[in-house]
Design a protein that fits this description.
Elements: E1 2-6, H1 28-47, E2 53-56, H2 71-81, E3 86-89, E4 92-93, H3 99-112, E5 117-122, H4 127-130, H5 137-153, E6 158-161, E7 166-170, E8 184-187, H6 191-200, E9 203-207, H7 211-229, E10 238-246, H8 250-268, H9 308-314, E11 317-320, H10 322-336, E12 340-344, H11 356-382
Parallel strand pairs: 1-2, 1-12, 2-3, 3-5, 4-5, 5-8, 8-9, 9-10, 10-11, 10-12
Antiparallel strand pairs: 6-7
Helix pairs in contact: 2-3, 3-5, 6-7, 10-11
């Protein structure tokens, strides 16, 4: 089983839980320390921990995770600091960027990493930071991806005349090292995005929802791909992202992590003056976006105020001793029918330097057992 790490980079010493943080509250020395910690973690991820992939997000101005406005810069650093680990983006928000610049930059990253790049593309993002209406996000996303994916593969220069981009001459340099282009993912739960992913053979990621609801999303993706697109996604076409914390005992894990696990959903999204803006009312979601689910969708906006037990029981959080964490990860992998998991070791106001022990236990006592279990399943399937 593959273990990917989602590297969230926030500003821990925020004065309040507001969505945005005032510039006067930013400590440049602390910011530099956090970036230095991140570089050190990238080195250790492969050399010490032996994880399979590192993924970086894109966020703008958010106190909770806004120290990563450009995941591509972190990916470039990781391409130098590592040799074999997958380097991923989860991801670039296509509606916020010029598709030619983004497509060429991703191709460059694939070359710098010697073909280790995993591309995550998102429709959702901090639209307010770029004054882009969320109601335009789907059209901008799909048109941008059309240009990027064609630019990676086209043998001759081409023109594109669309609603948002009017380009006479497109010829990407460099070209991605991986052919036809790097493995690509989209994190989503909406029916329209799931259908788009199946049509384009883009892989599906999900988080922030209970396991049984993510199961519904993955099942819809697999069913739509088979029935409407003529192909069947495999074990490696879906991944779930979860907050993780490992300690010597379950009680110690709760003592050390509970406060920050509860802070996470409360401070990650929403708040004034900027609005997160992902609803039917602001036209980000349609009426049918989650109609394929049996009940009302539960996402990040709905889990605010949940208890530690709620987050654990739903599968959104995986915390405990090594045996408990191993058991919970394997249970989700079985339910969701997947062979990799993306774990987020930093949440709330934690820093990477504060989760060293958790990462050591994860690497030494959880990951080896996950891989043994995966090998046992594979052996059973072929016997």
């Amino acid at each position: 089983m593959k273990v990917w790490i989602f590297v969230r980079i926030g500003y821990p010493n925020r004065v309040t839980g507001d969505y945005l943080m005032k510039g006067r509250n930013y400590d440049r020395t602390l910011g530099l320390e956090i970036y230095d910690e991140t570089m050190d973690f990238i080195r250790r991820a492969e050399e010490v921990y032996g994880f399979d992939g590192l993924f970086f997000p894109e966020h703008h101005s958010r106190a909770a995770n806004g120290l990563s406005p450009s995941p591509n810069l972190f990916a470039a650093a990781a391409s130098v600091l590592t040799k074999e680990i997958k380097i991923g983006l989860m991801g670039n928000c296509i509606p916020l960027h010029h598709p030619v610049r983004l497509g060429e930059e991703l191709a460059l990253l694939d070359n710098l990493s010697h073909g280790r790049l995993v591309v995550g593309i998102t429709r959702g993002g901090d639209f307010w930071a770029f004054h882009i209406p969320s109601s335009e996000s789907r059209e901008r996303f799909e048109e941008g991806w059309e240009i990027i994916s064609k630019g990676w593969q086209a043998e001759e220069p081409f023109a594109h005349h669309g609603k948002y981009w009017d380009l006479e001459y497109i010829a990407f340099l460099p070209r991605p090292l991986q052919q036809p282009f790097p493995e690509t993912w989209i994190p989503s739960i909406s029916a329209e995005s799931i259908e788009w992913a199946a049509k384009n053979r883009v892989r599906l990621a999900a988080s922030w929802s209970p396991t049984e609801q993510i199961q519904e999303s993955f099942e819809y993706y697999r069913r739509y791909a088979k029935e409407n697109c003529g192909w069947e996604p495999g074990l490696d076409h879906c991944v779930v992202s979860r907050d993780v914390y490992v300690a010597e005992t379950n009680a110690k894990a709760r003592e050390e992590a509970e406060e920050n696990l509860l802070i996470g959903p409360a401070e990650e999204f929403g708040g004034s003056p900027a609005k997160y803006g992902r609803s039917v009312e602001d036209k980000y979601f349609s009426e049918r976006a989650t109609s394929y689910k049996k009940g009302q969708h539960v996402g990040v906006m709905e889990i605010k105020g949940w208890s530690y037990e709620d987050l654990q029981d739903s599968g959104i959080v995986i915390a405990g001793d090594p045996d408990t964490v191993t058991e919970k990860i394997l249970a989700q992998a079985k339910t969701l029918v997947l062979n990799k998991i993306m774990l987020r070791p930093v949440f709330g106001r934690l820093r990477l330097s504060q989760v060293n022990k958790s990462m050591e236990l994860l690497a030494k006592e959880v990951v080896p057992n996950l891989r043994k279990a995966a090998l046992a399943v594979a052996a059973g399937a072929t016997s």
